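dumping this here before i forget
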Amino acid sequence: MVKLINPEFTPEYKLHRIPKDVVGQHSRHPLLEGLHIISAGYFPRAERQYAERETIDEYIIVYCIDGRGWYHSGKRGGLMNKGDVLFILRDTFHAYAADTYEPWSLLWSHFNGAHVPYLLEMAGVTEDNPVLSIGERLNIVNLFHQLLDTLHLGFSLYYLINAAACLRQILTNIALLNAYSPPETAKDLNTDSVINFMVENVTEQRSLDDFAAHASMSRSHFSRRFHQKTGYAPVDYFIRLKIQKACELLETTEMTVNQVSHTLSYKDQYYFSRIFKKIMGVSPRQYRTNRKTQLVTPENATGKRLSKLP
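structure:
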């Protein structure tokens, strides 16, 4: 069962549906099989808008950029306000509609692909958590409009790949916001703040105690939450920031390996070199040599010396 009431058409209204045979043909392309768009649109002040489906073999994203509405997805339901994003999972009963007195403005897309479950998992979307509050995000709004403008040009392979790339950026930006946005409660971890603290102290000696104290958490609780959000233990993450800084110094300065080691508060050059090789796969000296031989100049790019201009 499908019940759809689209809002009244206005000059700002946008709606693009990719022909079914085109979706079937191009969705198997290596650059689209992970994520491809089925339809997308923009409904400004969508009075009387209503959608209800028993199930649909597609994923849906609905970004409320103004006004209010309501939704029902699976076993969850509630109100949506400006800055909320609704995700409808595939094969899930759902309904959503504009508020009668303050109708929402929507940016939306139907999509599919093998990468979608992983992208939604990164964003923290589940059947029990279908709505994320991301606020007003101009970069995401602009990506939606770029997606729509691209589809307006047609549905050749190049346009579909470009539009899908916009949607992938939208989903990964939302995932980034979910992972690193300030905590909703004082007890939650502000990962962004901790990572900034690590970056600011990358040349210093810092311990798990320092990071936990900065987050105002116990060592065990902090370590668990940090690993959940980044995939790394705090000290392992800090070590990789140090190695990242070491790569920068080896490439952009004439500092010796010993000087780089001491700059990053490693007193033992050989211990530093072992850690560097474990993470980068080569020693610091070999890394510098490799990077220098990979530098491209006008001469080695053409294979011969360029003649001087008259």
